Structure formats: C-alpha cells, structure tokens
C-alpha cells in the first residue's frame, strides 16, 4: 500500500482536496489530514519518486513515508525505497502567513541535526540544498511544535516550477517597516523562481496596484527602479527611499498608456484587488506593448467559482507571456495564487 502527500497554506486544504478529487478520482482517496498537510492512499500501481500533485494549492507534494518516531525508523523506511542520495528539506508543518520566525527555524535546525548525523552514519549521501537541480531527490521532514513529537517524512523530485526552499518557505518574515504584506509576497515569489539575485540591480519594474508600497519597497531595496501605478497613496518609506528610484503614476490601470512608460521594463508585477477576468485584459494590453521578460501576477480567487476557472486564467496568461509560466500558492498568499512567467 502506498501513499502520497502534499503541504499547503492554512485554509487551502479544501481547495487542494477538490483539485485532487477532480484530477485523480478513483486513484487517490484521502487518508490522513492535519492542518497544512494531507495524505492520500494510492489505488493500483504505486507512483514513482517523480510523482507530484498537479495543483497550485500543493506547495510541496510527493511520496509519503509517513510518521517517524525516530531517526532509526526513518532510516528503515528510506532503505526500503533503495534511494541513497538525497537533498534534505526540513521545515515546520504549520506556517504562519507572515513568515516563519527565526526562533522556529532554530528549533527546526536543532531537531534535524541528529537526523543528519544518523543518515550520514547509515551511509546516505546528503547533498547540499544549494546544489538542488532538476531530477534531484528531496527528503522532506515536517516537524510539529513539540520537540518530542513524531515527524512526518516524504520524498519528491525537484522540477522546474517547484520551490527550491524547504517547504517553499524562504527564511523571511514580514518586517515592521513594510507598508503591506505585498513585501513578503514579492520576496517569496522571487525566491521561488530563483530571481532573488543581484542581477535585478538597476533594472526597471512596473508595479501595478502598488499602493501602499510593500512590493515597490522590496524591489527598491534590491536596487531596482520602480514605476508604480495606483490611484491610492504611497507610504513615505517608498516616496522617500534613499535611491530616489520610485515614480508614481496616479492613474487606474485601465487608463494607463504604455507610451507614458519608460522603455526597458524588466519585470511587471500586479497585485490589484480585482477578479482575474477584470484585470488580466489590462495586463495583456500592457505586456504586448512592453514585452517584459518576466511577470509576477497575483490572481485573486475570492470565491469558489474563480478557483474553478484557474486553469482558464493561466492558459490566457500563457497566450501573451514569456515562457515558461508557473503557478503556485505562496505561503504569504491568502485566497489568491502567484503566477510567474519568464526565466
């Protein structure tokens, strides 16, 4: 008997289960569920180690090894798979939407240390997570708050579009000076796609729906120039940023003339609080004029009917965006998902 698992944002468990029921009906049946973690029993042929659940609400998914009371039990389960070379991802099972605090990461690091030693002593090769490449096998360890609690273990293979950080959780929290939670969403999106690099410095971003300025501030702090579009007021931290690299266009996105924008936009961001059918045609119009090589779009899915149309929205985005196009629900997302396009 085999099982698969997935982690998700708190509150997205019903959406994830609905996706699995729709796409894997008859093969996967729910087996075990805790907040932000679901497992399914597999009927028929067991999946291989490359199995993933095709749902944007599954932040990490793969083969379930189940609960382990000790490192020795984990080692026995790993030996049964025949796998010997692994990257290790350890992370908390329950994660707050404003980021996992440093003290929690210190506790996770302390709990995984003896497991790493035991795995190494047992002859497993643990490759550094920094070298993670397509096809690499990842051992996921999910820890609860109690230090003596059993931990959950799973396996997945890394692929393009998957999160590189353990649990899809960059070690970031929303800073007190950030004007809005958009700061954390854009930082998590950059980390997800591997775009959190110095190459952003000096490049131009177009931030649609920028007020009060969380995403703009994150990009300014990374050395980007930012043109923000919003009828709302911007936070002083953005307006008075040391770089002086922010320009505010106080106009609705539907009236924005691409001719008013500077040439060479490298990144288009959009986190406008409108349903996708309302906002996507405006993004398409601007992208066809600007040809930005990268997009980060937040799609608001505030009602179930919009969730059910998500594939339709992503297909529409693929029609005007640079490839590849990937979609995920970031840890900082609420009833929304993040779509990233480009390389």
From the structure above, extract its key features.
9 helices; seven-stranded mixed β-sheet; 343 residues; 15 strands; alpha/beta; VC0802-like; Rossmann fold; 26% strand; globular; 28% helix
Describe the structure.
The chain is 28% helix and 26% strand. By secondary structure, it is α/β, with parallel strands linked by helices. The protein has 2 domains: 2-168, VC0802-like; 182-341, Rossmann fold (3-Layer(aba) Sandwich), CATH 3.40.50. It has an 8-stranded mixed beta sheet with strand order 2-3-1-4-8-7-5-6. Strands 11-10-9-12-13-15-14 form a 7-stranded mixed beta sheet, with helices on both faces. Helix 4 (182-193) crosses helix 5. The two termini are 39 Å apart. The model has no long low-confidence stretch (mean pLDDT 96).
Layout of strands and helices, then pairs:
Elements: E1 2-7, H1 13-23, E2 28-34, E3 37-42, E4 60-68, H2 71-81, E5 85-92, H3 102-121, E6 125-127, E7 137-143, E8 151-157, H4 182-193, E9 204-208, H5 214-221, E10 225-229, H6 236-239, E11 246-249, E12 265-270, H7 276-290, E13 294-300, H8 304-308, H9 310-318, E14 325-328, E15 336-341
Parallel strand pairs: 5-6, 5-7, 9-10, 9-12, 10-11, 12-13
Antiparallel strand pairs: 1-3, 1-4, 2-3, 4-8, 7-8, 13-15, 14-15
CATH fold-level label of the largest domain: VC0802-like
Calculate Rg over CA atoms.
21 Å
How many individual β-strands? 15
Q: Give the name of the CATH architecture of the largest domain.
A: 2-Layer Sandwich
Biggest beta-sheet profile = 8 strands, mixed
Spatial strand order of the main sheet: 2-3-1-4-8-7-5-6
How much of the sequence lies in strands comes to 25-35%
Nearest-integer average pLDDT: 96
Q: Under the CATH scheme, which class of the largest domain?
A: Alpha Beta
What is the number of domains? 2
SSE pattern: EHEEEHEHEEEHEHEHEEHEHHEE
Tell me the span between the first and last alpha carbons. 39 Å
SS-based class: alpha/beta
Q: What overall form do the CA principal axes indicate?
A: globular
- Helical fraction equals 25-40%
Detail the poorly predicted runs.
none
**Total of helices:** 9
């Amino acid at each position: 008997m085999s099982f698969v698992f997935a982690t998700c944002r708190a509150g997205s468990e019903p959406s994830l289960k609905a996706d699995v029921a729709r796409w894997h009906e008859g093969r996967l049946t729910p087996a075990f569920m805790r907040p932000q973690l679901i497992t399914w029993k597999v009927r028929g042929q067991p999946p291989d180690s490359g199995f993933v659940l095709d749902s944007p609400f599954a932040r990490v998914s793969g083969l379930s090894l189940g609960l382990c009371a000790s490192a020795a039990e984990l080692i026995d389960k790993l030996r049964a798979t025949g796998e010997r070379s692994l990257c290790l991802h350890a992370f908390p099972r329950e994660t707050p939407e404003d980021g996992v605090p440093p003290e929690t990461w210190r506790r996770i690091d302390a709990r995984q240390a003896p497991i790493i030693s035991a795995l190494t002593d047992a002859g497993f090769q643990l490759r550094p997570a920094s070298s993670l490449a397509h096809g690499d096998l990842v051992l996921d360890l999910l820890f609860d708050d109690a230090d003596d609690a059993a931990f959950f273990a799973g396996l997945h293979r890394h692929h393009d579009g998957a999160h590189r950080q353990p649990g899809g959780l960059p070690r970031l929290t929303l800073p007190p000076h950030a004007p809005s939670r958009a700061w954390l969403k854009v930082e998590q999106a950059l980390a997800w796609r591997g775009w959190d690099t110095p190459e952003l410095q000096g490049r131009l971003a177009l931030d649609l729906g920028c007020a009060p300025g969380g995403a703009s501030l994150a990009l300014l702090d990374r050395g980007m120039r930012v043109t923000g579009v919003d009828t709302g007021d911007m936070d002083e931290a953005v307006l008075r940023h040391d770089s002086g690299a922010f320009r505010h266009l106080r106009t609705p996105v539907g009236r924005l003339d691409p001719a008013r924008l500077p040439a060479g936009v490298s990144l288009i961001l959009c986190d406008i609080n409108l349903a996708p059918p309302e906002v996507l045609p405006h993004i398409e119009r601007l992208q066809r004029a600007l040809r930005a090589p990268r997009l980060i779009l937040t799609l608001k899915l505030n009602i179930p009917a919009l969730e059910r149309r998500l594939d339709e929205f992503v297909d529409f985005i693929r029609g005007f965006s640079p490839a590849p196009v990937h979609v995920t629900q970031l840890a900082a997302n609420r009833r929304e998902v993040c779509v990233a396009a480009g390389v």
